Structures are given as structure tokens and as C-alpha cells.
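Quick note —
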Amino acid sequence: MDVVRKVVKEEEEYKMKINILEKTEQKLTFELTESNETFANTLRRIMISEVPTMAIDEINFFANDSALYDEILAHRIGLVPLTTDLKIYNLPENCKCKGEGCNLCRTIISLKSEGPKMVYAEELTATDEEIKAYHPKMPLVLLLEGQKIKFEATAILGLGKNHAKYMPGAIFYKHKAKLKINNSHVDFDKFKDKYPKQAFKDGKLDEEKLLRNDLYQACANINKDILAIKYDRDNFIFKVESFGQLAPEEILRTSIEKLNEKTGDFAKAIKQDGKKLKLPSLKRS
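Predicted structure written out below.
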């Protein structure tokens, strides 16, 4: 997968490459190469704040006999991750209805329940059957004998930069580490018991296991002559942990589209009367 980074120098394009290292239903680890800190952090920020997801925006309570006030319960319900289909729904501000409300930018979610019981997120029912709580057993509120709860809510697409409930996941990165391991060091046997078992393969420190189990930073402090670390400033290891609204690959793919869109708009914006502005080059210290 390539991320196209357009710059204003002679319409030249530079490509940052993405290599998928590990993928599960909720987690994605990938390597971003031939890049720098600025674009790595830009990609991270876009994934967190500008990839839209579905969440409950407004709630009308018709009954709430629980111990939680309406405001507290509404806050809990608003944070429930809802499965999201970006191919169907639009951001309200970009919808043809101009934010007035239609089935292309919002869906109605309702819940009616009576105690004694624990009310779980799986009881949320949307008019669109594809919209549901990703974690069905997420507890919402405890109802005692005779207590009732009934409400109708509106769920819309939103952005993490406007509210944390729209954030698609936890995303972070670090520079790619290059390890220098000296298993034949004279003090290796002396310090061997201080390293975790997960760092070894066939009785020796193993680079793949150290990297895969994220143990190298802690192990490097034991003896720098046995294990030393050097970081690559142009290559980055990203971890995307989805909250469940979107698959981690979709979070990445959507963020790349947003990044290309923003860099394209920037390239157009700095042209004035057909002439390109001369910008100072950025130098690393």
C-alpha cells in the first residue's frame, strides 16, 4: 500500500510505503517507510480525529427509573461503539439534506426494558439493522424490581476532533528499532536470568521475539553491551487498535484518502495567479 505525498516541487510525487506486519479483527500493525516524523504524526492525527464513525448524538427519555440521572445514562450510551458503514452514511454537514436529517446521515436507535435485570448494549435496536453495538455485553444500567427505562435516540456520523465518542480507536507509533545483539558477550551468562523467557529462542536472545513481544526497550537497560538499540528516523511502526466501529484496515485506508485529499488541496492553495510560492525547506537538526 502506498501513500502518495504530493509536494509543490515540479509536480513531483514522493511515495511512502506501508507494509502490513500483523492483522487481527481489532488490531493492525504496519510499517511506514521512507517517511518522516511530520507525516507519521499527521497520519496518526487524521486516523484519530478525522475518520468518521457512528455514535448516538441525541437521546429523548420517556422513562428512566434507574439510579442514574438522564445525563449520566445518556453519556454512557453515547460512548457505546456502533458498527459503521461509511459507504452508506454521510456526515450531516455533507449530506444532501444539509443536516436536517435523513436516512443517509442518521438512524434512530431505541431501547425499552424493565427490571430486575442488567441492561446491556445488545438491547439497543436501530432502524438500520446493520447498526448495532459492537460489544453486545457492554453494561448500560442496572434496573431493580419495577424500574423501567425507555428512550429514543439519534445516531449520526461524527469526527473525533469534535467529540471523543467518534474516535475510531487508539493509534500510536514509534520509530523502527534496529537491534544489535551480542549473545557471545563474556557477561551473557551472568545477565541471562534477568531477561524474560519470551525474548529467547534456542537459548539465545532473538531479535524477532524481542520486537514481536515489544520487549527490546526494557531488555536494553539490562546490559547495553549485550543488547543495543538504534532507531531508524525514516521508518515507523504503527499500531491501530479499533474500538469496534470500523475494522482497523478501514481506519487506515480512510485516513490515507483524507491525507491525499488534504495534501492535494494544499498544493492547489499555494498557487497564486498560476505561480507557485517559494517555501523554505525544512532541515533536520
